[in-house]
Fold:
Amino acid sequence: MSDRERSSAENEARRATPGRPWTPQEEPRRGALGRYLAAVAAAASARSAEEPKTRSGTAESGPPQAASAREPSGEEPVTLHVRDVMQVPAVAVPGDMPFVDVAHMLGREQVSALPVVDAGDHVIGVVSESDLLAKAAVMAEPRRHGAVGRLWQHRLYEKGHGDTAATLMTFPPVTAHPAQRVVDAAWTAAHARLKRLPVTDHRGRLVGVVTRRDLLRALIRDDAEIRTEVESLIGRHLLDPRMVEVTVEDGVVTLAGRLDKAVVAELTASVRDIDDVVGVVDDTEAL
Structure:
């Protein structure tokens, strides 16, 4: 990852950081979020690099190739699509559902937002906890007045007077398509700051949902996969790979054992070049 991509990911991570400090239980999620944002930043960088070529007519228009997509050694790059990672069936609410029932549905499904569909199952919007909060605020204080009232966005205030999913929802909806590449869906979700994207067919009908967690798992490999590749790499560098103990946690690789210092320097440099490796910790002892 370039310095520019890393800076972009770090800036986005800071904006996503809660006002309170991260707890020890939340640290793994913080690391995963950082790796997800780094992958999205790499995709954004690739997109920006291709835009000038597209405008000049030297390249076909279309989404950029993913710099962070999984590419098994010695094989053709694997391009994952939304259909490969989306969740089906997708839970949705009808446009005429009362806001109280919408609140119950969000709580039962343990999600922060749900797509709103019409009678033909077309996605017409998304209703979220924020929309319900606007409704609750209007119920508690039906009239705007003073400085606080002037700070409210007009549309949000007006929406708070709605009584059904269709009158409370945010529209037009931001959606993904089953044939869309995962990196492009991730870029869409990151740009719109959404945790969930409804997936629709070419007619706008709901066919699934893809979450930020789904995209994260598709964009970056888990620790077990990284460890397997590191151990394979060590096997190509050493006659006896058992001389090195490898552990991986949240993308950070730790090497332990007794090795020649020159070998360690070459080995750590090679490990850092592995996709999705966040850092390398050298706990080896010199022979």
About this structure: The CA atoms of residues 134 and 140 lie 10 Å apart. Residues 95-116+125-171 form one domain. Residues 16-20, 56-77 have pLDDT under 50 and may be disordered. The chain is about 45% helix and 15% strand.
